[in-house]
Design goal:
- With 273 residues, the chain is mainly alpha-helical.
- The chain folds into four domains: 99 residues, Orthogonal Bundle (Helix Hairpins), CATH 1.10.287; 35 residues, no CATH class; 79 residues, Orthogonal Bundle (Helix Hairpins); 50 residues, no CATH class.
- The protein is 73% helix and 0% strand.
- It is built from 13 helices and no strands.
- Helix 10 packs antiparallel against helix 11.
- The protein is globular, with a radius of gyration of 25 Å.
Amino acid sequence: MPNDPLIHDPNGGMPRLLEIMRRLRDPETGCPWDIEQDFASIAPYTIEEAYEVADAIERSDWAELEGELGDLLLQTVYHTQMGSEAGHFTFDSVVKNIADKMVHRHPHVFGDESRDKSAEQQTADWEKIKAAERAGKQQARTLDGVAVGLPALTRAVKLQKRAARVGFDWPEIGMVVDKLIEEAAELSEARDTLSQAEVTEEFGDLMFVLANLGRHLNVDPEEALRSANAKFIRRFEQIEDDLAAMGKTPAESNLEEMDSLWDTAKAREKASY
């Protein structure tokens, strides 16, 4: 093949990766699996790779992060190759688009505006620029443009932030806590009389208020839940280790014993801080 030297050149850089993807998608000589894919079928892999990047960062595994960033970059290359085949866009046009956007959104770095402003003012200016961009795309409503495919908790926070910009927000955190208590009480009191669909709706309301509380506390709910998941795994694995030392498995234990071991694992963690 004419481009084999580039494909096998370890220093081929971005042109090498683009050519590899082009060849994988070649309808005559490419990989059957890659040829069959489309934007919708690849999108879940894109999301998964982004989470794996976040996971490597969370674990401070920099060698792993290098590989995961490559996997994430491949997703961009994959989508741009399909976009090029369909005549929608190319890798170069995608690069130009994001470069233009960064220059446009940072006039205090690349333009005539002063850098002598607070982070809060820079954030406000950024949002004004984004609002103008949305208006240019005929996204006139306040909540337009918040991606549907975001994780639900992340999307809840983004929706709440958008609404808060136009004054639709609780003015102080105590009111959010009151609403959280109200929603929890409603769910608890009505759980035996509601249909499953209604229970799901009420539970969703409770989660939405929890996300709002996180926003008011400056806590990312996705990050907080990931941390809670990791803590649960650590402590449950400690329970398994302690039971194993007794010659038992969790299935051979009971809730009372495991709850006691949980408290022990929790105390060990706190003592190690």
